[in-house]
Amino acid sequence: MAQLWGGRFTKETDALVYRFNQSIGFDRRFFEQDVRGSMAHVRMLAKQEILTEEEKEQILAGLSDILRDVADGSCVITEEYEDIHSFVEAELTRRIGEAGKKLHTGRSRNDQVALDMRLYLRDEIDETAELLQSLLVTVERIMEENKRTYLPGFTHLQKAQPVTLAHHMGAYFEMFRRDQMRLFSIRERMNECPLGSGALAGTTYPLDRAYTASLLGFDAPCANSMDGVSDRDYVIETLDAMAIMMMHLSRLSEEIIIWNSHEYRFIELDDTYSTGSSIMPQKKNPDIAELIRGKTGRVYGALMSMLTMMKALPLAYDKDMQEDKELTFDALDTVKGCLHLMEGMLRTSRWNTERMEKSALGGFANATDAADYLVRKGVPFRDAHSVIGRLVLTCIRKNCSLDELPLADWKAECPAFEKDIYDAISLPSCVNRRLTTGAPGAMEEEIFRSRRYLRQAEEKLAEIQHEKEQAGASVF
Fold first, then answer.
1. What Cα–Cα distance (Å) separates residue 116 from each residue in 28, 123, 306?
2. Cα–Cα distance, 212 to 223 (Å, whole number)
3. Segment 18-61, tens digit of pLDDT
């Protein structure tokens, strides 16, 4: 049992206790972040003359070799170690001798794991933001190509008013835009370095915490050492953002599932994003959309588990916090996979525009526009609403749409109707008259704003990547 502690103990840890306590099975994910943090820490120790230049170079060379050997598979992280920190320190000491034992000077596993979690989560946030960018680009392309693709808009899953596919997908662009902005905001808020907090009360060594923070690309060190080791708000915020993101993906998945059904046939999924049935040869199932919808609950569960785990923890660090990792890793993997699959599914799908338009013509989706026609003729809206309601009943009795209703029937209810009513309730008129900001008739403006946001987000992602490369160069 490879442990970083033991001097206080006279008995070996029970094997079951050891396995229950160890985290190497999942925190090995932190390997690269742990080495990166150790390199920055060593550079700072040498700068402060706590380590000699020779010791610094020995340790940095050893860490670089371990990093390379794990990457190429010549060195394997095994479960004989309690955690990833134990592995790195033990392997370093095995390779370079006594200097390796000085790696842990001025730090605790408490601030070390807090650093690794922040570094890892920051990397994951960046990757997720990139995946969202790809999805947003695909959604914007669908909007651009379907400004004149008419379909019914729904409330209560009943046809309500005609819209365009561009307008409908624009709503999802806004959802995913907010998701990406949340990630940018969380990243900014969490970008403080806990290293140097020690176990909870800092250290007597003259550490330069600001220098370590700058080497690792953080804006500043955490202001309070107790908060530095015990804060997991950034994990909760990230899981909250992931849960909201999955909710948006689930809503879109639900619509794809409905639209893919034979009753709707608004969309045809590509064969590469569909599955079949083992018994029914005609089936082409939207399993990917259904799985995204189902996995939403899994991410919700991670958020609730994290909130429950943290709700009664006294300051500072408690072992309960080890439970933040597995559920967070699983949630991140789930979200990234779902984003990747949703983008591919949308990009390869075919939209049945004729079917959508035919559906928009039925179900009296243009009834509100018929009422607005009377309002423009001077009829009070409430009276116009009643007139159109009675005309809808007439259509139901005659089994026809408002477009097919003879002018005589219109005039029988209200003499203000003229032949131009048919133009007023046509799909282009219903859509194009709605010109207020955010309405389907104002899509050029909305698409312009969407493109502008994509450019800004691309610049933000490039800026983040540049900062990471600079930090990496200063550490490695």
1. 11, 11, 18
2. 14
3. 566 677 988 999 999 999 999 999 999 999 999 999 999 999 99
Give CA angle at 211 (208, 213), nearest 5°.
110
Are the C-beta atoms of 170 and 443 separated by less than 8 Å? yes
Residue that has been written with the tokens 């207020």 in this structure: 436
Cα separation of 472 and 14, whole Å? 41
- On whether the CB atoms of residues 11 and 1 are closer than 8 A, the answer is no
Alpha-carbon span 272 to 289, nearest angstrom: 13
Amino acid at 379: V
* Cα distance between residue 127 and residue 118, in whole Å: 14
- Cα–Cα separations (whole angstroms), residue 395 to 153, 367, 390, 406: 20, 11, 9, 10
> What pLDDT, in 10s, does the model give residues 345-387?
999 999 999 999 999 988 899 999 999 999 999 999 999 999 9
Alpha-helical regions (H) of 399-442 = 407-413, 421-424, 427-432
C-beta separation of 405 from 422 below 8 A: no
What is the C-alpha separation between 283 and 161, in angstroms, rounded? Answer: 32
- What is the pairing mode between strands 158-164 and 192-193? unpaired
Task: Name the amino acid, one letter, at 174.
Answer: E
Cis omega (within 30 of 0) for bond into 316: yes
Tokens coding 126: 């960046």
* pLDDT at residue 13, rounded to an integer: 63
Cβ neighbours of residue 54 closer than 8 Å, sequence gap 6 or more = none
For residue 262 the two structure tokens come to 């034979």
Which two three-digit tokens encode residue 171?
């709503």
37, 116 contact by CB (below 8 A): yes
pLDDT (tens digit, 9 = 90+) per residue, 283-299? 889 999 999 999 999 99
Instruction: For residue 97, report the phi and psi dihedrals to the nearest 5 degrees.
Output: 85, -145
The pTM (predicted TM-score) of the whole model is: 0.93
Q: How far is CA 142 from CA 41, 146, 261, 363, 404, in A?
A: 48, 6, 20, 25, 32
Residues contacting residue 294 through CB under 8 Å, at least 6 positions apart: none
| CA distance to 61, 71, 346, per residue, from 28 (Å) | 21, 12, 35
For residue range 95-146, list pLDDT tens digits in order. 999 999 999 999 999 999 999 999 999 999 999 999 999 999 999 999 999 9
Q: Is the pLDDT of residue 3 over 70?
A: no
Q: Which residues contact 208 (CB under 8 A, 6 or more apart)?
A: 44, 47, 48
Contact 286, 252 (CB under 8 A): no
d(CA 343, CA 292): 12
Q: Taking the chain, what is the end-to-end CA distance rounded to the nearest angstrom?
A: 31
Mean per-residue pLDDT of the chain? 94
Residues with a known catalytic role: 156, 277
